[in-house]
Amino acid sequence: MTDIRDDVADAFFAFTGREPDGIWSAPGRVNLIGEHTDYNEGFVFPFAIDRRTVIALGARDDRKLRIASAFSEELAEHDLDDLTPDALSGWSAYPLGVAWALGQFGADLAAVPGVDIFIESDVPVGAGLSSSAAIESAVAVALNDVWQVGLDLETLAKVGQKAENDAVGAPTGIMDQSASLLGQTDSGVFLDCRSLDAQVIRLGFAEAGLAVVVIDTHVEHEHASGGYRERRASCEKGARELGVSSLRDLDEDDLPRAQQTLDDETFRRVRHIITENQRVLDTVRTLRELGPRAIGDLLDASHRSMRDDFEISVPELDLAVEVAQSNGALGARMTGGGFGGSAIALVPLESVSLLQVAIDGAFAEHGFTAPTTFVVRPSIGAQRDR
Ligand code: ADP
Ligand code: MG
Q1: Helix, strand, coil fractions of the chain, as percent rounded to 5
Q2: Could you say which of 160, 210, 218, 230 is the most buried, measured as most Cβ atoms within 10 Å of its Cβ?
Q3: Is residue 349 classed as helix, strand or coil in its secondary structure?
Q4: For residue 223, is pLDDT > 80?
């Protein structure tokens, strides 16, 4: 198998005519459970995957930032002295935004050297596996080392989030960066989005003979961002009418009162958040007490809640989940923000190929675009590779 770390060193040499100072990488992620809970100050439980964005970096003797990526023909060039979030756009807003955000978290950008960066990745872009957090986290750990900023991984997650919020302009939470930076082999990152307390929890899928299959539907809905905003607004309305600062302050005992107080649609949105938070906690507890084969029902229930209460699924995702469930999966759910993207299924290893064939067949029968299915393994987070 070719190693993209060799490719990236060669590409860096072709780009600059010299060897890089080092090579760093960071993974994409899959969210195992906990959807739309992050901005309600609730719980999420993603894991880092074995698809990575790799960067080769070398310091310069001037103040220029020069960034190239196998992803694009464009070479991005920027001066450290006029690095502001408003000046950034396109794909290079991710890496350059991280350089700017490091300054917001204490790096002395007036005193650091410019750098050349070459980027390669095998994280599919826009498939819901957070290629954005992978690029942000890889650049964050590399610059943190080379510029000797000394920030810990939790703070680097905030740096990546700030780059995405302010330089890219996407109002996302901190889940993706936390998974990409804090992930460990065979483990997930259980994150409390209120305290930002993160715990690495062993998943043990491989040892239990299980695989996680991602089914990328390739569906991209125009109203994904509108739908996201509407769901956020419903959650805020529900919290306001129930007199709490966020839905995190409610649990299943509050459901009868919520049903009496709220209109039907807002109630169902709120019920998804309350029950989803509980399912994340139950998943962590079940893993510890009974092991990974016992979490399938929680994944199934999470999907039903997103389909019926939060209403963010689409027919392709429902089909992927149903076909997985009737072809050996212990549990399956759509993952990510919804209105398209990917589903995941927890599958005994011996059923993986059967399930892939069944999914392809069912999608063809329904006249849907052929999906891409592949196995992901819970893997180590961002690191220096060489
Ligand atoms: P995802 O679900 O993959 O995170 P996003 O839209 O959040 O989708 O982020 C994808 C964007 O991140 C790309 O359009 C590009 O601008 C940037 N990006 C991701 N990976 C790379 C890469 N290897 N090189 C350059 N830009 C990248
Ligand atoms: Mg993203």
Answers
A1: 45, 25, 30
A2: 160
A3: helix
A4: no
Could you read off the pLDDT of 342-353 as tens digits, one per residue? 999 999 999 999
Pick the residue whose CA is nearest to atom 7 on ligand 1. 132
pLDDT band at 127 (very low <50, low <70, confident <90, very high): confident
Q: Which atom of ligand 1 is least distant from the CA of 131?
A: 3
SS3 state at 198: strand
Q: Is the pLDDT of residue 1 over 60?
A: no
Statement: residue 2 has pLDDT above 70: no
Residue 205 tokens read as 């899928």
Q: Supply the pLDDT for residue 220.
A: 85
Query: Is 4-202 in CATH node 3.30.1370.60?
Result: no
Joined together, the tokens standing for residue 300 give: 């199934």
| Domain residue ranges in the chain | 4-202, 208-376
What is the number of residues in the chain?
386
∠ Cα 75 77 80 (to 5°): 155
Q: What is the mean pLDDT of the chain?
A: 96
Q: Is 69 in the pocket of ligand 1 (CB under 6 A)?
A: yes
Q: Does ligand 1 lie within 6 Å of residue 53's CB atom?
A: yes
Ligand (nearest to CA of 225): 1
Annotated catalytic residue within 6, 21, 86, 176: 176
d(CA 75, CA 288): 48
CA distance 309 to 311: 6
Task: Give dist(CA 47, CA 159) in Å, integer.
Answer: 19
Q: Are 101 and 139 in contact (CB under 8 A)?
A: no
Site of tokens 């310069």: 60
DSSP code string of 251-305: -GGGHHHHHHHS-HHHHHHHHHHHHHHHHHHHHHHHHHHH-GGG-HHHHHHHHHI
Q: Please tell me the class of the 208-376 domain.
A: alpha beta
Is 176 among the catalytic positions?
Answer: yes
Dist. CA 141–CA 152, nearest whole Å? 9
Residue 250: what pLDDT?
98
Q: Which residues of 304-315 are buried (b: 16+ CB within 10 A; e: fewer)?
A: ebbbebbbbbbe
ipTM (interface pTM): 0.99
Q: Which atom of ligand 1 is nearest to the CA of 130?
A: 4
